[in-house]
Amino acid sequence: MKSYNDLPLICADKYYDMSFLCSWSGGKDSCYAMHIAVKKGLQPIVLLNVLNEYGDRSRSHGIPKEILEAQADAMKLPIHFFESTWNDYERLYIESLKRLTDTYNLKSAVFGDIDIQSHRDWEEKVSNAANLKAILPIWQQSRKQLVLDMIDNGIEALIVSCNNILGPDFLGRKIDKKLIEDLEALGVDACGENGEYHTLVVNAPLFKEKLRVNVVGKETSSNYNFASLKLL
User: Fold this and answer.
1) Domains and CATH numbers, the chain
2) Digit-coded pLDDT (tens) for 154-169
3) Cα atoms in the 13 Å half-sphere on the side-chain side of 161
4) Which of 121, 123, 202, 219 could form a disulfide with 211 if both were Cys (CB 3.0 to 4.6 A apart)?
């Protein structure tokens, strides 16, 4: 059988159930993966996000829960959260996948990873544990071209956390072609796939309305910079 990425748009429903869960970080990669899955004819049903152990922001990107909820509202989709430390992450992730699979009768889960094999291995592992097919719509595509495609497809995103190679001045910057030039001048991957930076999507084709979010402060923790965000 051909890989999912090779399937023509009209044939997607011949190989996979039309409905899917999206592993939602709030950032550009998961958003674009869902965008591509929808273009292939699949139907997003629910979002899944992991919060820190305090339940106030996302485990991976540090995005406040209320902003993640606003993103889901903008797409008219439910979003499921669970709180976790890194130690309990996998166990609780599988439990949530199983629960949502039963609730929504899901057959597949969409992820936004690009080319780190260990990430894909983990996503296939947890999906298999919940009897789901892991789908990675942007897998093994050019990192830089992906960011350019995101921009061209109307995905608007801001840097909300970054390492010290970039530093706090990059927080709040919009993902655009000038930013890509600045990243490359610093020797930083244009897509940030290695964790150099993380983003918050404020608008996309799947959004019914644009989010209004301001950076109201900046903080550093464990040699990583985070934007303090306020939803307007």
Assistant:
1) 4-135 (3.40.50.620), 143-231 (3.90.1490.10)
2) 999 999 999 999 999 9
3) 20
4) 202
